[in-house]
Specification:
Lyase 2-enoyl-coa Hydratase, Chain  A, domain 2, 2 domains, four-stranded mixed beta sheet, binds acetoacetyl-coenzyme A, EC 4.2.1.17
Length: 263
């Protein structure tokens, strides 16, 4: 359990093994400012090393998951400043380094950096009013936090191009049909509850197998098929060295419920 308090996010632990991070800059529709990201990165780092957290849910408000990078903060940046401090790199670093699964529960706007943040998570669930988009083109720029890469992989070239070139928003129904969101819910509350349910299921498994599963799936995006399959097999072999593999398989054979040790 994290005892830290933050200015721009809320942390709670609503289910066993599950931590909920709520982005909390409601008046600015959760625009992703540097202070917000610094809170988020610090919370993710704390939760990732906390044994009582085994799965994380990330959400915003019912109106807005996150309306993008903070345009007011960014508007006067020079090239030298942006390049000099590698603006935005630190955003994706912590979230990509988080070894525990993160489920994004998206209600309302997930635009620009908000859509990119959702796509950095491992699973996206959408509420009925979710609106995904990369509107950077309307600001005279392009996605800068992985949107062009992750959206392409999520929905294919033609749809990704249309979204990025026109800046149009994509609603929950299409996001679900296209596989950008794994599931679409009838109400914003159901979206968050659904994410917490799934997180509780994941948190109920052995932590080492969960970590390995996330690692091998993510590895697929980085390498070709034969390399990826080989990596998966090696990690699979490695899990025979864990206590939980014995616990899980012996419980199945004895028709008992496994008591995970996370070792
Ligand atoms: N940055 C800073 N402030 C933002 C913001 C953003 N991305 N999005 C919304 N806000 C602020 C508004 O300025 C407004 O603040 P004030 O009350 O102080 O004026 C407040 O949030 C409420 O917003 P609106 O009044 O605009 O609310 P609305 O309901 O009329 O419209 C919206 C909602 C369509 C989402 C509209 O706010 C909007 O278009 N926002 C910008 C979306 C956008 O372009 N995002 C991409 C940013 S670029 C980026 O993210 C780069 C990258 O790849 C990392």
């Amino acid at each position: 359990t994290s005892s830290e308090t933050y200015e721009h996010i809320l942390i709670s632990h609503p289910r066993p093994g599950v931590s909920l991070i709520t982005l909390n800059r409601p008046k600015q529709l959760n625009a992703l400012s540097s202070p917000l990201f610094s809170d988020l990165n610090s919370a993710l780092s704390t939760l990732d090393s906390s044994p009582s957290t085994r799965c994380i849910v990330l959400t915003g408000s019912h109106k807005s998951f996150a309306a993008g990078a903070d345009i007011k903060e960014m508007s006067t940046l020079t090239f030298a400043e942006a390049y000099g401090r590698d603006f935005i790199k630190s955003w994706s670093q912590q979230i990509s380094n988080t070894t525990k699964p993160i489920i994004a529960a998206v209600n309302g706007y997930a635009l620009g950096g908000g859509c990119e943040l959702a796509m950095m998570c491992d699973i996206i669930y959408a509420g009925p009013n979710a609106q995904f988009g990369q509107p950077e083109i309307k600001l005279g720029t392009i996605p800068g936090a992985g949107g062009s890469q992750r959206l392409l992989r999520a929905v294919g070239k033609s749809r990704a191009m249309e979204i990025i070139l026109t800046g149009k928003m994509v609603g929950a129904k299409e996001a679900g049909e296209w596989g950008l969101a794994a599931r679409v819910f009838d109400t914003p509350e159901a979206c968050v509850e659904g994410a917490l349910d799934t997180a509780e299921t994941v948190a109920g498994y052995g932590g080492l197998a969960v970590k390995a599963a996330k690692e091998v799936v993510n590895h697929a995006e980085e390498v070709g098929l034969s390399e990826g399959v080989k990596f998966e097999r090696r990690v699979f072999h490695g899990l025979f060295g864990t206590k939980d593999q014995k616990v899980g398989m012996e419980a199945f054979v004895k028709k008992e419920k496994p008591e995970w040790t996370h070792e």
